[in-house]
Amino acid sequence: MTNSKRRRGLAAASALLGGVLVLTACSGGDADASSGGNDTSQAKVDEAAAKKSSEAQITITPKDGSNNASINNSATVTVRKGTLTTVTMTGQDGKTVAGQLSADKKSWKPTGQLERSTTYKLAAEAKDSEGRIAHENASFTTVSPANSFIGTFTPDNGATVGVGMPVSINFDKAITDKAAVQKGITVSSSSGQEVACHWFNANRMDCRPEEYWKEGSTVTLKLALDGVQGASGVYGVQQKTVTFHIGRNQVSYVDAQTKQMKITQDGKVVKTIPISAGSPDNKTYEGQMVISEKFKETRMNGATVGFTDDDGKGEYDIKDVPHAMRLTTSGTFIHGNYWGAPSVFGNVNTSHGCVGLQDKKGANDPSTPASWFYNHSLIGDVVVVQNTGDKTVSPDNGLNGWNMDWAQWKAGSAV
Predict the structure, then answer these.
(1) Which is it for strands 333-337 and 317-326: parallel, antiparallel or unpaired?
(2) Which among 249, 273, 286, 253 is positioned nearest to 378, based on CA atoms?
(3) Which segments within 2-98 are labelled E, that is strand?
(4) Hey, is 305 helix, strand or coil?
(5) Whole-angstrom Cα distance, residue 81 to residue 128?
(6) Stated pTM of the model
(7) Quick one: average pLDDT of 74-101?
């Protein structure tokens, strides 16, 4: 192609492109008008869609993405301007969590306590008065063990116990805000007795009245600790009510000098049993002690409580001690003794600190003094030990807060 022809071809193409460009530019106004028309149409479509949307408004708590959620009060689904038709909650394992829809179909919640440190998913569906459907979804994670605390309490719900049984709560995390935690715990008695709580340390709080519980009364423990901050970043998770009953008033008095134990009920002596208390080298603690555990038979190894020989072995290791009842955490028991001669009881103090009663091997002879006392004792009964020459048992060594006067006891309250 010659240069002149090439120039003419480029000019023609340029003119054509120019025309297209001009045409495109001139049609811009029409395109805007057309777009404006589309906006109007879309608005009408949106308005029509809105009219078809459900008026039902579903709310799920906790909010989607929440962490450290309660294991008691989380996973509540409610609806306004409609009724719930379906709610499905699943755990990390994909299993469905059981729940209950309210009678008016306005709310739903799980029927049981949730697991800690678990992610749950919720899917809810509702309809309005015209049958139009609405949906809502959420996911949340419950509080982890590292960020929560639990209080292990005694006695158990529904138990019948002796008049000396305190409410004792041991927390699995050190509590720094004792006042906040104590405010979430209430202990009351049907007898109307004033109850005060005492902190022995950052992990233990006991509650009791000034005098022993009234015979036949009912004690109620309420734990409202869900969401209560006990320490920095550590929250309570318990929300429950516990009741226990106080049985007959039985208090037993051990006299290490006379080597006799008098069992009283309502202040009257019902039986006297000969005993053998701690020897002069291993005296028994004095004071008011509460029976905290009962074992028909148990093993007692001196090595576990510091009684060892030169080889480091226990000075005694009896694998079948009968009718044993714990009086202190440190190892003081009142128990049956089948290895001592009958003449020992009522005459000589020979033990390593426990209180021994005459018994038979195997714990199957109901005629023995130890068997009688075991069968007539409740956890929570008081055993008062006197005239041993030893110090008074520490109030926190077992359930033995009765060895602290009322003013001192109340001084240990955080509220």
Answers:
(1) antiparallel
(2) 249
(3) 57-61, 76-80, 83-90
(4) helix
(5) 6
(6) 0.79
(7) 95
